[in-house]
From TrEMBL, chain A:
Belongs to the iron-sulfur cluster assembly SufBD family. Residues 210-451 form the SUF system FeS cluster assembly SufBD core domain. One of its GO terms (biological process) is iron-sulfur cluster assembly. SUPFAM superfamilies: Stabilizer of iron transporter SufD (SSF101960). This is Fe-S cluster assembly protein SufB. It comes from Algoriphagus lacus. Transmembrane segments: none annotated. Residues 148-202 form the SUF system FeS cluster assembly SufBD N-terminal domain. The gene is sufB. Coiled coil: none annotated. Pfam families: SUFBD_core, SufBD_N.
TrEMBL record, chain B:
It comes from Algoriphagus lacus. SUPFAM superfamilies: Stabilizer of iron transporter SufD (SSF101960). Belongs to the iron-sulfur cluster assembly SufBD family. GO terms for biological process: iron-sulfur cluster assembly. This is Fe-S cluster assembly protein SufD. The gene is sufD.
Amino acid sequence: MSKDNSILEELTSKEYEHGWSVNYEADEAPIGLNEGIIRWISAKKEEPEWLLEWRLKAFRTWLTMKEPEWANVHYPKIDLQALRYYSAPKQVKKTKNLDEVDPELIAIYERLGISLNEQKRLQGIAVDAVLDSVSVATTFRDTLGKLGIVFCSFSEAVKEHPDLIKKYLGSVVPMTDNYYAALNSAVFSDGSFCYIPKGVRCPMELSTYFRINAANTGQFERTLIVADDESYVSYLEGCTAPQRDENQLHAAVVEIYAGAHAEVKYSTVQNWFPGDKEGKGGIFNFVTKRGICAGDHSKISWTQVETGSAVTWKYPSCILKGDYSIGEFYSVAVTNNYQQADTGTKMIHIGKNTKSRIVSKGISAGKSQNSYRGQVQVMKRADNARNFSQCDSLLMGDRCGAHTFPYIDINNSSAKVEHEATTSKIGEDQIFYCNQRGIATEDAVALIVNGYAKEVLNQLPMEFAVEAQKLLALTLEGSVG
Amino acid sequence: MSTLTKQDTFSSLFTAAPKNFESVRKLAEESFLAQDIPAPKAEEYKFTNIGKKLEQSIVNYSAALPIEVTIDQVKSALFEGFEGNVLVFSNGKFLPELSSSIESVEISLISAKPELALGTIAKPGKDAFTALNQATFEDGIFISVPKKTQIEKPILLLSFNQANQGQVIQPRVWIEAGDFSEVTFLDQSISLGESSYFLNKVVEVKGGINTQIRYYRLQNEGKNVIEVSNFETDIQQDARFTSVNISLSGDLVRNNLTLNLLGSNSEGNMYGIYLLNGKTHVDNHTNVDHTIPHAESNELYKGILADQSRGVFNGKIFVRQDAQKTNAFQQNNNILLSEEAIVNTKPQLEIWADDVKCSHGCTVGQLDEEALFYLQARGIDKVQAKGLLLYAFAGEVLEKIEEESFHNYCVSLIQERLGSKF
């Protein structure tokens, strides 16, 4: 036991790798939240009138809404009036030419291991880099442009492709969907927009990298992905934040639209600052992600590796509206120290012959709480719907918790739905088996955890899979159950 | 919408409540007023809008008075081959003159036991209807099995219920089983008439160490009955408790079944079938609370849903931080036979200890077409083949009933419902 403790201590004393921050001159909104601030943000971003109206409408609805309390997480109430809703590096003047981007900002991303220099990068990924409230650079725009693919920051999209934004914004996650989605709709600052035209297969991975730098600032970004009929895109999202003592709020909205025969693959490696080992600080990650398989034979696949954030509240969902559409959700959620995660998915079967698959692997260590909350809903007309869900939990340490809240609501008799879940710790016999073959306990745990999460990690694009595996090893190294 | 508050629905019950158990009733009343009738969408009653059902046409509920029950009625209600003791109730009131006296078992009215710690097992704070019952129940039955006693023959709690719309029947049962005792209870109620009364039942079972208690219940009330039942038991060291609940009828039925595993090496088993047709809505909420290490729980609920029926299942396994070496298994399977039947299931795990083996599974599906074809290819007609497969599906739960005559009776009822005898 004492050995376990020392290993655990070693683990918990591990610092958050991306905990640094940079001082730059920032253009900030005054602290607080009211209609004035929303007008201020909208004016700052030179937005058209209709978008301002849209924001204000969302804000007015938000005022009537209550903060949700049903999630299995506990955190001090957030004073939304004490936050800053807009913070942008002053030097940012969005240019099409990457050479003109402030080298200081590029350096921030270099330090995170994200090169914004197209030549130096692997040719595989186009990146939209979002720092606090604004997008600072988007790479490979020209290459993508030749195929008709639009990949840019949300603000640019509002100016350059207002019709698309008008058509799809809020079509999957209505502004009044929930408390944090409404808040996001009112104050969102930037994000990524991507449009894949009909019949185009996006030749590279598209990616957004979110970084919170400023203190006392909430990050509210909005991502909108539209895949027209018969197109394909794979999208990656990464995020980090500096180590600060106070909690910071991140309330994003991601909307995905998939037309007939289109396929969208959305992968996230979430590594926000999780708070220190005393549970102080960390990001509150309250995110609404939803995709709609609007056309027949379309497919949306969510893959997430959740290792960061003090509190996570996130349910990437699929609305399976088109006949024969497919929704997938693969998740590994790791919590350590005082982290709390309440995450899962919703699969809403509306079309006929729709299929969904849920694989969720939770790992809790330290004093953390890890909950899976999912819903599989088969509507009356969704004939021959098929779902398979598996949610497993692995416990390390006797002070952590693993919880499962699966809701299964079936309104059609032709549905076939299966759900299974297990909770256990790493078997002593498994470790013994490894020991016997000369593998040290620590390596054995890593091996077992990796094997446990393999089914999900396999779904990640190659570049991400490497990062995710490293992250997993880092988060759990040495925590022998 | 009426301007009356929800609590007014039951206000005359409170005024008419007996004056005994004053402090117990008072606490319960406060608890009821604090909780109120579950609001629509309240998490625990998410799919069972009982408030709406209760308030649909009734402004003010009153207690149903006992009706007359004859010895012939009792005799004809006993199922074939039954050999045991019968305790007869009329609208919740115990009728000693029609009941057997059971050797070495103490039976009395709850009102004759003023020291009884009512509500210490089924706590009124957990459910508004437990609180309502505790605050306003007329009387109930106290059954005590002394320690080191084995009651070989089962004890049948046979209730005859007849009431009108707007009337409440509130049975209250307190069972004590001393250390090292063993006893089997059968619970059946018979609705006389078709009217829509409200049955609000609370059963508390206090078991000693190393007890073996079995409680088999058949719910086959009239098709318009609204029923809520709260059943809670404490299971001590080395003890085993088994519950089998078979729901066949009713308008809206809600069962809250809670097992508290309080001693090591204890075992709690919960089995159930809901075989529903018409517009019947049955909601089974089960809760196993593992508070100590080295305990085991097993749960298997199966549902067959036809017509516009709705089955709700919520199974919660709660493993506390100290409850290491827990084994907990839970399974819920459903077969939908009609387009309009609905299933809402939520097998829930809340685990705070690490050295545990817990699993749950749940399925919703149809009869296996291939199995059906296999039987038809062998000359069994489709209706019979269906019945055979459904019976096999339910059989896994039925075989948990160790009391033969009751088992056979349940089997015959289920076979009859499934439309084929074999």
